[in-house]
Amino acid sequence: MKKTDKKAKKQRILIVEDEANYAKLLKSQLVERGFLVDIAENGLEAMKLTREKKPCLVVLDIIMPKMDGYQYLEKLRADEELDEIQVLVLSNLGTDKKKDLIKKWKILDFILKTEISLVETLNMIEKICR
Q1: What is the pLDDT, as a whole number, of residue 8?
Q2: Please, are residues 90 and 61 in contact by the beta-carbon 8 Å criterion?
Q3: What is the secondary structure of 27-51 as a DSSP string?
Q4: Is the pLDDT of residue 4 over 60?
Q5: Domain that holds residue 24
């Protein structure tokens, strides 16, 4: 009998975050959990990487230089090839319109960084992409 070694395809995640230390920490932890991870420092870089890499999930900050998270979401949702990519907003920007934003932009959740631990964040990402 022939034995086949099937390796599970690694899921790709795009972190869109202008705080370099936080992005690197998140990336290192996700890589340890077996994910392929790219980092974009702003929405412009994120659009380029999203088109090239087609991640299973985008972890998106809102307040960034050049193109903010809202502008990125607008472009992402307007692109038929990218419209179904899952997005988790993880930001320091609080809003009382969280439910409206989730519905409008078809995002999984809008979470304040201060309200979730790193481990909880990693576990949430893992559930989404596995």
Answers
A1: 53
A2: yes
A3: HHHHHHTT-EEEEESSHHHHHHHHH
A4: no
A5: 12-129
